[in-house]
């Protein structure tokens, strides 16, 4: 298992990309922007040495990130860990009593993932993901 990325909820990618690029010392033109309709979000990925910052802009106010911003404002949204076997991780955490936020592992954009509820993870929304190998 390794830390994959830190998710940060933002109101606007166009405002946030330059700010975070300056903050962490990377080129803002290297940000990879992707829309993820399945999660109702647009993301910008800024690569640091061995972890990524994932800036999350909601596509609608009703999205999970939109609701987060209404309640808490901009800031840390989640931590993500990459695992070798997403299904084994899912089963182990479920058996250990962690509250999982979906009834199954989801697959999108070349990887599989799921989230653990903050109440089960020390107050931090936690994502686990595995890159697809097929």
Fill in the keyword field for this structure.
alpha+beta; 2,3-Dihydroxybiphenyl 1,2-Dioxygenase, domain 1; eight-stranded mixed sheet; 23% helix; 37% strand; globular
Can you describe this structure?
This protein is an alpha+beta fold and 134 residues long. It has a single domain, classed as 2,3-Dihydroxybiphenyl 1,2-Dioxygenase, domain 1 (Roll). The chain has helices spanning 13-24, 64-72, 86-95, and strands at residues 2-9, 32-36, 41-47, 52-58, 75-82, 106-108, 111-116, 126-131. Strands 2-3-4-1-5-8-7-6 form an eight-stranded mixed β-sheet. β2 (32-36) and β3 (41-47) form a beta hairpin. The longest helix has 12 residues, at 13-24. The mean pLDDT is 94.
Briefly summarize what is shown.
It is built from three helices and eight strands. The protein is of the alpha+beta class and 134 residues long. The mean pLDDT is 94.
What order do the helices and strands come in, and which of them pair?
Blueprint: E1 2-9, H1 13-24, E2 32-36, E3 41-47, E4 52-58, H2 64-72, E5 75-82, H3 86-95, E6 106-108, E7 111-116, E8 126-131
Parallel strand pairs: 1-4, 5-8
Antiparallel strand pairs: 1-5, 2-3, 3-4, 6-7, 7-8
Percent in helix: 10-25%
CATH superfamily: 2,3-Dihydroxybiphenyl 1,2-Dioxygenase, domain 1
Overall strand count:
8
SS class:
alpha+beta
| Distance between the first and last residues' Cα | 20 Å
Q: What is the mean predicted local confidence, pLDDT? A: 94
CATH-level-2 architecture: Roll
Look up the CATH topology.
Answer: 2,3-Dihydroxybiphenyl 1,2-Dioxygenase, domain 1
Uncertain spans: none
The structural domain count equals: 1
Largest sheet: 8 strands, mixed
């Amino acid at each position: 298992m390794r830390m994959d990325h830190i998710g940060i909820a933002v109101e606007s990618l166009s405002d946030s990309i330059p700010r975070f690029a300056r903050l962490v010392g990377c080129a803002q033109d290297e940000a990879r922007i992707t829309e993820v309709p399945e999660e109702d979000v647009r993301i910008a990925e800024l690569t640091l040495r061995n972890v990524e910052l994932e800036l999350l802009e909601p596509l609608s106010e009703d999205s999970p990130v939109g609701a987060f911003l209404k309640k808490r404002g901009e800031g840390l949204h989640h931590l993500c860990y990459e695992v070798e076997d997403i299904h084994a991780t899912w089963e182990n955490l479920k058996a250990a009593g962690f509250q999982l936020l979906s009834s199954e592992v989801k697959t999108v954009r070349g990887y599989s993932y799921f989230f653990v509820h903050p109440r089960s993870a020390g107050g931090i929304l936690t994502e686990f993901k595995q890159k697809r190998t097929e």
